[in-house]
Amino acid sequence: MTPDSPSSHAIDISLIIVSFNTRDVLRESLQSIAREQGDLRLEIFVVDNNSHDGSVEMVETEFPHVQVIRSSVNLGFGVANNLALEVAKGRYIVLLNSDAFLCPDSLLLSVQHMDQQPNVGLAGGQLVGRDHSWQPSARMFPSILSDFKVMTGLAGKFPKSRFFGSFDRTWADPLLPAEVDWVPGAYSIIRAEALQKVGFFDPEFFLYSEEVDLCRRIQNAGYKIMYWPDIVVIHIGGESSRQIKTLEMSSAGAQLIRWRMRSTLLYYRKHHGSSAWMAKMLELALYHLTALRNSLSSDPRRKERARRNRNLARLMHQAWQDTNGGRVSPPRPWKFD
Known about the structure:
Distance between the termini: 39 Å
Strand content: 15-25%
Number of strands: 9
């Protein structure tokens, strides 16, 4: 990657989508890119994480201009993106989830904003559901205090409070641009020059927290992280993730939660040292207290909630062991075991 002036690049945007068994929404995502390309010079990569639903064949047949990078195993989000980043030639990198679709002018506005503000290293836009309901799109770095506010429900109870709603900035007007700490990986535009300085995604993160870590490193290198609400992206993943509570006790759901816990511990250990232990203890304390309170009730629903929280505590103990307290990442690919 060379310095990101328009004259030094033949390509404006290297757009990267990581896909894992998402054929139908991936098609819709690629169609949205075709609608929004306009006069922008794009190269498009789909990195396939060993899908078995015909995703690769669909892309090769219906979108022959797209460069497909196949992996024989599921590499996770960050490392899969890294495969494309190694060969990307654009002055900007756009990361787009396979379940995210570009709205009118989103790409053009992204490039215009980045051109106008060379001190911005990475930026995101306004994420909405299919019904255009708002999704958290601009966040602050996690801390033990913010974790406490979110996990106890205080953040949700007082969303308009600057103190309680700090993590997701629910107090802020979503229609106003803002400098923030990080933006979700469903959509982001990154200055190639910034990646030259800080490197790509940390391969220690298989899933979850990888974009938080990257934004922190970009910010530490002197760049700003921005939220631009006139860039609108439909993200259906935000809708499907609402079903996670129904999955908690299933094998797949429990493993996703355990992966989230692993990444939380890895993030805290990397950036805050011994705070990884505090993050573990906070979650365990809340799970055990919630389990105790609900186990005293005769209501079957509360009994089930107690059982669910005891299981969450067990998963946190496993995640702590898996990562040696956030010091090491388990061998990739992480598995449902």
